[in-house]
Amino acid sequence: MELQAVLMAAGGGSRMPDLTYNTPKPMLPVGNKPLMWYPLNLLERVGFEEVIVITTKDVHKMMSTDPKMKDVKMKLDVVCIQEDGDMGTADALRYIQQKIKSDVLVVSCDLITDVALHEVVDLFRAHNATLAMLMSKAHEFTETVPGQKGKKKTGEQRDFVGVDQSGNRLLFMANEADLEDGLSIRKSIMKKHPRMHIKTGLVDAHLYCLKKAVVDFLADNKSISSIRGELLPYLVRKQFSKTANCPKSKDDADDQTQKTIDGSTNSTELLISSRDEPLLQLAQERSCWNDHRGDMSEAYHGGKLRCYVHIMDRGLCYRVNTLAAYIEANRLAPKLFEEPAVHPSAVISERCQMWSDSIIGAQCQVADKTSIEGSTIGNSTTVKEKVKITNSIIMHGVTIEEGCNIHGCVICSNAVIGRGADLTYCLVGNEQQIEPEAERTNEVIVGTDQLMEI
Q1: Which of these, 252, 216, 251, 209, lies nearest to 232 by C-alpha position?
Q2: Are 87 and 10 a contacting pair, CB within 8 Å?
Q3: pLDDT at 170
Q4: How much is the mean pLDDT over the chain?
Q5: 153, 189, 393, 423: which has the fewest Cβ within 10 Å?
Q6: What is the pTM of this model?
Q7: What are the tens digits of pLDDT across the range 417-448?
Q8: How far is 320 from 30, CA to CA, in rounded Å?
Q9: Could you tell me which of 336, 345, 327, 340 has the C-alpha nearest to residue 407?
Q10: How confident is the model over 7-22, as a mean pLDDT?
Q11: Residues 6+ apart with CB under 8 A from 90
Q12: Which of 62, 207, 48, 195 has the alpha carbon at shortest distance from 124?
C-alpha cells in the first residue's frame, strides 16, 4: 500500500471510566474481541501488511497475551508512549514522525465500521488531497444505559460541516461551542463556492488520510495537540487563504498572525512537498476536467491544499467512546462476521435455552435450566443453574451463582454475582461481589476509589 497505517490506541476512555478503570479502552471486549481488533481487521482486509500502533505499555502487555490479537496477521510496529493526559492525537503523530515515509491513514482504536475504505482513499488519491476523512450520521442510542436514572440529554455540541454540491469537498467545519457570535462564512469560501450545503448531525469517525507533509508540518508546529480539535479546522480553513504574493484579507492576516505566534512554518511548505506535484500540475493544466461549474476558473480554483470527506449514509459506523455506544457495539458488531455463536471450548448444558442473538466465549461453563437472550458472555465465565440473562454484557472471568436474574446489565471482568441476586440495568465494576439475594436497579456498583456520577 502507498499509505502507511497508524492506529491510535493510547486513549484512556475518559468518558466511560467505570469500564476502563481496570481495562484500557483499546482492550475492552466487544463481541468477545478487543475493541482495537476491529480497526486492525478493517486494515488487514483491505491489504495492509503493517501498521504502526501508538499505545501504552499496559495495552502492549495485554496485546501480547490476548488470543484474538494473535489472530492478526499484519506486522504490528508498536510504539509505546507515556500515559499522559495532556498528550493529544497530533502529539502522538508528531512522536512517530521519523517512522513516516509516505502519506498516512490514521485510525482510532474505538472505530467499528463496515465502510468500504476505498471510498475515503479514492477521494484522497483522485483529488491529490491534503486530507480525506470519514464521517457518519449521528446515532440515537435506544438502549437503556445501566445506572442512568431518567433520560439523560447528551452534553455534546453539534458540528457544522459545509460541503460543496458534490457532497465531498469539505469547505467549512466548526463546533457549536466556537460559534458564540453565530455562523459566519468567510468571503473567500463563498466567492469560490457560492453554493454550500451546511450539515449537522454528523459524527467524525476519526479515520483520516493525511499527506506526509502534514506530519512534517506538525513537527514544526508543536502548539497543535489534537487532530480533530485543532489540525482539521486549521487545514479546512487554510484551503481558502490567499497565497503569499496576493493581498491578504483580514481572515488570512489572522491566520498568519497565529502562525507567527506558534513559530510554525509557512503554509506553502505544507503544500508543495509532494514529489509528484509537477506531474500532477501538468496533467491538470492539459486536462479539460474541472471540479466545479459556474465559472471559468481553473480546477480547484488554483488551490493546492484540498480537504475531502466521505459521509456514510448507510452501514455500520460507531465510535465506541461512551457506555451507550459500547452497549450498542456489542449488540451489532458480531453481525459483521460469520462466526459460531458458541466457542468450541465452551461447555453448554443441553438444558440451556440460548437465543441465536447471543455469544458464548471460550472456556465458558453454562449449567442446566439457564436462559441467555440477546447477551454476550465473556471468556472463562461460569453461569450456574437457573440463571436468566437478557440483553446484558458479561465480560471475562465472571461467576454468576444459581438462581440469578440479570437484565440490561454490564458486568465487568472477574465479578461475582451471589446466589439469587436480581440485577436490572446495573453496571458492576471489575472484581466486585454482589451479595446473595440482592435486588439492585439502575445502580453503578464499583469500588469506592472509582466512583463517578453517571
Answers
A1: 209
A2: yes
A3: 95
A4: 85
A5: 153
A6: 0.86
A7: 999 999 999 999 999 999 999 999 999 998 76
A8: 9
A9: 327
A10: 87
A11: 218, 224, 225, 226, 227, 230, 231
A12: 207
